Amino acid sequence: MTTQIQRHDIVDGFYVYLQNQLDLKAGKVSYKDYIQALDKYHIPYFGKLFVTSIDQDKIRLFDKWRFEQNGRQLSKSTLMTHNVALQMVFKEAIDRKWMIVAQVPVLTSKGGEVGTRRAAFTGAI
Prior knowledge:
Largest sheet: none
Number of helices: 4
Radius of gyration: 16 Å
Shape: globular
């Protein structure tokens, strides 16, 4: 069995879980964001690598690539969403005994500007 990050192995079970939770109205709204982050960034970049070969150097190169893809630094909250999605993939690999906790690289959320809060609707006229 391969330990590459591809939808047919590690990520597939994760997608099914997230989608089932969303379908049952039990999942968090952020589950859609996790799926999008994996589809747009993690799978295209890490898709041909074994999950156990993703180390700090590869994470640094990924951060650089992600910056180049966007032409700007992503916000801290977006980076945190991306990190949660990738951490869930690593957790799945650990649960399947394809890697151990010590192999999981540290992910940072040092991003661009902190997102600005949208104006609230007060209902007052």
